[in-house]
Amino acid sequence: MPELPDVEVYRSYLAHTVLHKKIEDIKINVDRILASPKERIIELKGNSFEDTHRHGKYCFLKNNKDSFLILHFGMTGDVEYYQKEDDPKNSALVFLFSEGHKFAFISIRKLGKVFITKDKQEFIKEKELGPDALSVAKDDFLKIIQSKRGMIKSALINQKFIAGIGNIYSDEILFQAQIHPTTNISRLDEKLLDNLYKKMRKVLIMAIARQAEPEKFPQSYLLPHRSKGEKCPRCGGEIAQTKVSGRTAYYCPKCQKEM
DNA sequence: CCCCATGTTGTAGG
DNA sequence: TCCTACAACATGGG
Length: 259
What we know:
Layout: H1 4-15, E1 25-28, H2 38-42, E2 49-55, E3 58-63, E4 68-72, E5 78-82, E6 91-96, E7 102-106, E8 113-117, H3 120-126, H4 138-146, H5 152-157, H6 167-177, H7 190-209, E9 240-244, E10 247-251
Antiparallel strand pairs: 1-6, 2-3, 3-4, 4-8, 5-7, 6-7, 9-10
The protein binds a DNA duplex through residues 1-3, 6, 32, 57, 72-77, 90, 107-113, 127, 148-151, 154, 157, 159, 166-169, 243-248.
């Protein structure tokens, strides 16, 4: 479930588990997840991870040679730190530490990617990522959105504008801001965008606090009800769906009026 | 069997 | 140039 909140939960988990341990061996089970040459990964043997970062949906593991292993989860993914002999199902990449401790990068659909880079900023530039959704200042957020055209949901999930928001969380943010997903940006005045920024932060921060598990979210949020036939937790009306940028958008037609 | 799914990338068209 | 739609990638669930 890898949008910004999910990746932040993974990052925090890794920060508490894999740091400052010598990498004794590396198992590459699924070659297609490698976005950098295999040798670059193998070179990590003997090194240790020393720090973690996140930008949008990308998780960075800095090592003692000042380069970064970058994890991107695609549509499905997980990380697991464990000691048992058997690796978790769908382990694409496994790092082995001393005393049988291991760290697996899991990718069911194999759409995850692993990169190595010397320069984090250079990587962000190459990927053309916008500022991180939880780090961007309000003024910058407004400037970025106001310089775009088209539907607000499309802009929110475009990683080149703001990094970290995907299809699921854009629905929640727009529900909280009471903005219809297909609203044209030109129809949103400063007050609405200001509120959108606040709701974006509110949603992402709440989600991280609850381990990005929608079952743990307050019932007043959309995500626990984000499926066909469900009722809007605010007005009791039926949740509707439509297509935006090829993705399914869920919304409440009564609370999120078209503008 | 069918359709759908949290992401990214490339292509085609307006 | 910028935006939209769509297919492809691979796998699992309903």
